[in-house]
Amino acid sequence: MMIPACRLSDLPRGEAYRLDIDPPVSVFHTDDGEIFAIDDTCTHQDASLADGWLEGCEVECPLHSSKFDLRTGAVDAPPAKLPVRTHEVLVEDGTIYVRLSTDAPNLPPCIAARLAGGVT
Amino acid sequence: MRTVAVVGASLAGLSAARSLRKRGYDGRLVVIGDEPHRPYDRPPLSKEFLAGTIGEGDLALETDDEDLRAEWLLGSRATGFDRAARAVRLADGREVRADGFVLATGAAARILPGADGLAGVHTLRTLDDARALRDELALGGRLVVIGGGFIGAEVASTAYALGLDVTVIEVAPTPLAASLGPTMGSIVSGLHTDHGVRLRCGVGVKGLSGEHRVDAVLLEDGSTVPADIVVVGVGARPCVEWLEGSGIALDDGVVCGADGRTSLGGVVAVGDCANWYDPRAGRHRRVEHWTGARERPDAAVAALLSWGESEPGVPKPPYFWSDQYGVKIQFAGHAARADSVTVEEGSPDERNVLAVYRRAGRPVAVLGMNQPRLFTRWRKHLAVAA
Ligand SMILES: Cc1cc2nc3c(=O)[nH]c(=O)nc-3n(C[C@H](O)[C@H](O)[C@H](O)COP(=O)(O)OP(=O)(O)OC[C@H]3O[C@@H](n4cnc5c(N)ncnc54)[C@H](O)[C@@H]3O)c2cc1C
Ligand code: FES
Questions:
Q1: Helix B150-161 and helix B182-194: axis angle, to 10°?
Q2: Closest CA to A99 of A44, A42, A19
């Protein structure tokens, strides 16, 4: 599925835009001018990676500092252990589009439990 | 270096072991820990694990496919350090000789004198503690938390959510004042009363009453607070008794330089047991927070592998978080150095603030309540400015 996220001109370098779909996805514009989309929710707990700290091609989770690679979704060190999904991005006529991955997301246990309708 | 022994198999020890391998150390690696468990994460013990929303498997710090090529001596307590032989002595009589040592034995919960042996009285530091407390909280009743620090406050918050009747007793006039200063300490601890959890400040605990099981907490003002369960959350002491007489300098933990080097060559200390020199504060400071235990071992390992040759960098300002009553609390820096605190965003009444602590106009600390984005930016700024 292809989803329009935002205007490229509305997303300055070094900033992130959160797409409020379920689960949310974030689009990052790096200082080098590259654009990436990944799942917004940290795989450790309920934190928004769009609130995190972008440095190079990595975003640091705002709560407990695990870093995710925007290119691959890979995580560097605990407390998060699982990667986030990455999504394909496309820029057309000044609009950023995201093509959602069809993989299953790696949601943190607290959210997975909530979605499953209770505590596992 | 042919053998490195890491003593303490929790966050700081595991982080050191990882850094050793990441930095190319290829020799023998022995990790000694007195708990029988593989390294697990402690912060959830007062939060999600205690609440029952995550299980034991979720606490593991290692990933499934991780292989550090280490020898794990678990369930083995270190009882002494032999400087001449360069060996750690274990409780079962064994010795581990090594060239390099990482001391990472953490801290243990302080207890109240005279509280031993009464059922219903808990401290919270280990997985086993958390299992026992979780099982009792499930029965409900009246919980009294002694100590209004972060662990006490988190236990109170979790128990409140589980439906218990909760009272928190704090000897200081304002909880959290030591770490956040009085103004912000009272705003953050206002979370208790917002939710109908009773908070009694400025009164000490005289003792506990009960035959076999605790039934009340006796206060110094002569009053009595009935209790079915008591949690003692009065801080932690560094686990360094085993190093006494070893010649390694101790003073509120292992005394270290700004890169974890101890007074003895080839020995570094990391995590809650280490009293690192903090160039920003101009003094030694023992930091009992997760992020320090995860990040600083890398600097210590670099120092260990290049003994005497690397210049210690300036460690990042200390950072911690806490989750209470659904509010994310984040703090970085040193509140004690500040001469002013201002709320830059949000409102204290709504328990949603970003507050900046300054000294002579320069930021030295920052506090966030439900402000992760702004907090993250301020925290980075602080690392550069302070
Ligand atoms: C309930 C709880 C909640 C917390 N919540 C937060 C939070 O929200 N945010 C935050 O920033 N920090 C939090 N912390 C603090 C954080 O967990 C600690 O800073 C961190 O665990 C320190 O890691 P460490 O490896 O230095 O020490 P520890 O985790 O204490 O580990 C030390 C290990 O060494 C072992 N050991 C001790 N003596 C010996 C010996 N003689 N021989 C062999 N092994 C020994 C111990 O059994 C233990 O396994 C919390 C701590 C607790 C207990
Ligand atoms: S929520 Fe992201 S590292 Fe913990």
A1: 20
A2: A19
* A96-107 per-position pLDDT tens digit: 999 999 999 999
> With a CB-CB cutoff of 8 Å, which residues 44-63 of chain A face chain B?
47-48, 50-53, 60, 62-63
What 3-state DSSP class applies to A59?
Answer: strand
* Inter-chain touch A110–B52, beta carbons under 8 Å: no
* pLDDT per position as a tens digit, B256-303: 999 999 999 999 999 999 999 998 888 999 999 999 999 999 999 999
Q: What is the DSSP string of B205-274?
A: EEEEE-SSB--EEEETTS-EEE-SEEEE---EEE--GGGTTSSS-BSSSEE--TTSB-SSTTEEE-GGGE
Contact check, Cβ <8 Å, A78/B41:
yes
Task: Give the residue among A21, A38, A25, A23 at the shortest CA–CA distance from A108.
Answer: A23
What one-character-per-residue DSSP string does B45-100 give? GGTHHHHTSS-GGGGB-S-TT-----EEEET--EEEEETTTTEEEETTS-EEE-SE
Average pLDDT estimate for A94-117: 86
Q: What is the pLDDT of residue B116?
A: 74
In the three-class reduction of DSSP (H, G, I as helix; E, B as strand; rest coil), residue A76 is classed as: coil
Angle B150-161/B127-137 helices, nearest 10 degrees? Answer: 40
Query: What's the angle, vertex CA B288, arms to CA B287 and CA B294, rounded to 5?
Result: 90
pLDDT of residue B311: 77
Range B174-191 average pLDDT: 96
Q: How high is the pLDDT of residue B386?
A: 56
pLDDT at B117 over 90: no
Cα B7 from chain centroid (whole Å): 17
pLDDT, averaged across chain A: 92
Cβ-proximal residues to B347 (8 Å cutoff; 6+ apart), any chain: B353
Residue A120: pLDDT band by 50, 70, 90 thresholds? very low
Pocket of ligand 2 (CB under 6 A): A 42, 44-45, 47, 61, 63-64, 66, 79-80
Across the interface, whether the CB atoms of B372 and A47 are under 8 A apart is answered yes
**Candidates B239, B329, B379: which one to mutate for ligand 1, based on the most atoms within 8 Å of Cβ?**
B239
Question: How far does CA A75 lie from the centroid of its chain?
Answer: 12
Tokens of A13: 């370098």
Q: What residue ranges define each of the domains in chain B, with the CATH number in brackets? A: 3-108+236-305 (3.50.50.60), 111-232 (3.50.50.60), 326-385 (3.30.390.30)
Share of chain B above pLDDT 70, in %: 99
Chain centre to alpha carbon of residue B206: 26
Hey, how many other C-beta atoms are within 10 angstroms of the C-beta on B237? 16
